[in-house]
Amino acid sequence: MIRLEGVTFRYEDMQMRFDVAFPKGSFTAVIGPSGGGKSTLLNLIAGFEAPEQGRVLIGGADVTALPPHQRPVSMIFQDNNVFAHLDLWQNVALGVSPSLKLDMAQKARVEAALAEVGLGALMQRKPGEISGGERQRVGVARALVRDRPVLLLDEPFAALGPAMRKDMLELVTAMSQARDLTVVMVTHQPEDALAAARHTAYLENGRIVALRPTAELFAAEDLPGLHAYLGDWRSAKL
Amino acid sequence: MIAYQPSRVPAVAALALLALALAAGFLPVLRMGLEQGLSGLDPYVLRVLRFTLLQAGLSTILSLALGLPLARALARQSSFPGRAVLLRLLNLPLALPAIVVIIGIIEVYGARGWLGGLFDIYGLQGILLAHVFFNVPLAARLILADLERIPPESWKLSAQLGLSPLAIWRLVEWPAIRSGLAGAALLIFLLCASSFAVVLTLGGGPRATTLEVAIYQSLRADFDPPRAAMLALVQLALCATLALVAQAWGGLAAGWPALRLQPRRFDGRTALSRLLDGGVVLLALLLLVPPLLALIGAGLFHINFSALLLRALATSLGLGMASAALAFVIVWPLAVLAVRSGAWRKVASIAVLASWIVPPAALATGWFITLIAQAGMTGLAAFLVIAMNALMALPFVSRVLMPALAQSAEAHDRLCLSLGLEGWNRFRLVEFPVMKRAIGLSLVMALILSLGDLTAISLFGTQDFVTLPALIYRQMGSYRFDEAIGTAVVLSALVLAFSSLAERWSDQR
Q1: What digits encode the pLDDT tens for the residues B403-416?
Q2: Disulfide engineering: B441 pairs with which of B181, B243, B311, B505, CB 3.0-4.6 Å?
């Protein structure tokens, strides 16, 4: 579904190189030290960064030269997924039409999406009047109405408490299974990866060092960088 | 929880000093104004008021009309060759003394200038041109600062949703600048309504004069204190209203908006938007660059370190350092309390605006009347100039000190409480070493303001008591324009040296 072929990208002193494929319907977590290139990987897929060399393919089509909005991709960020001056309904409706002119069927879709993420009763609220977890749900609802086959998650739950994080993760997992989405999720929480992702990639210094089934990756003995990155967590959990 | 309670004595003393200065300025003006009653509002006063409002209104509209597209172009084109240089160029008019820039403008558009004869710069057109020169960069910097506060995710989201330039303007840019725009407009209007040097040099007699300059003329040329008092009362009502409205609206932006890291944007890549943005930038360059080039080009050949110039230089530096120190001594104790108490924050935010609420010429009128009634003022001139320059610097000094002090309070209060560290010891061991940069920056900003001031020195200066701006004005007036240009280059070099120091300190903070 998603393929990066010989993609290179330079950020300050770091030369990154990605050769990787994420099959259709897969849910992959990406872990690794900060500044290792996790967000850059998502930005390259979404089209927020252009590779120096190589190609980005989604669904077999070369999207390397396409601007972000023409790619079959939705992305949820850690923060600022909403425009603060628009109400929740408008924020989600932007995913259907940038001019906010919706027909009856589209309006129904927006309302259904808000209901699906549990915000049906809060549609007319402004983002400032709801909790941080609810704001992230707005991003999920917008991804629902956009209905793109690829969903990228850039630490979307990092600012949430444990219970809220678990709820959100379950919501996203259910949604991606029901719609057969291809999901790539950047996270610092091994629990998130274990709970939701069938595969996990370990990324450091601009390279994907390993991409394995999640439990296998966390148990791996051959990755010293990963050992250092996980630290005490590993001995506590495994 | 027990909070750190700094001593209130120095703050009360600072407030008392301010109150004394304002009362000495305000009360005589009020008394003399009330004695005349409505009869004092003669056609001359009303004509001056009308012109003041007209030129300030037009200056504000023109400055925003170019400043807004310029800010948008600079925000949208986040990387092009020369962008950093252009941003520094936008700082120049804010740092350079008005009189220096006016010399450059006359050198380009004046009768014998590069583009001489295009229009008559003495009168409304010249005043507007000079005000636009100063305030387009100010408007652009203020609006740009608001645009750069838009979170990077909003740009990613806009790109992913495929928003059109119009939708981006409506949904992202306009909401971000809307509230700041009113504040910027009020600030520019206030600056233009009380601008002195521009109107003094480019105004064309009684036809094109503003309250601030008319007060000066009544006091120093016509020796007519009652008329000065009437004008001062009108000016005071106007500026106090504007300053208080602006303050209530979210604060006057006094200071240089900091350069931030430019978030990546994904719009504005089409040929049309590049062309439009390029056109706007070109227009701004055409406005800003020629006067600065003319100043350097002509001035370098006319620098003459005469005894007069050296004396003016020494006077300027002495007055500047004294008023910077005075401004600091007034702001510090207020700021120390303001960062820890909401009530003091309100008091301090109004107190530092004293010179904007009671504008310099109005204040000077009162001081003048008081002191003439007492002893005469020859011996006091230097003190009055220092006091007035310190008052004018208060908002800038507090703008720099407040955030740094708030940070220090947050970081150190509990530890200092537990160690019993307070008062002078706390200043010496904690605040001073931690805030060295901010303190230096606030002093240098006050110094720069004072170095460029023409208002106070015109109101109180004498034949033998001359600063660099006053010397430039005198040389202009006595048909020695070449000498004036030379002096202007010396003054700009001095100010730019200090402001590059200030910019380095503010970048590293």
Answers
A1: 889 888 888 887 77
A2: B505
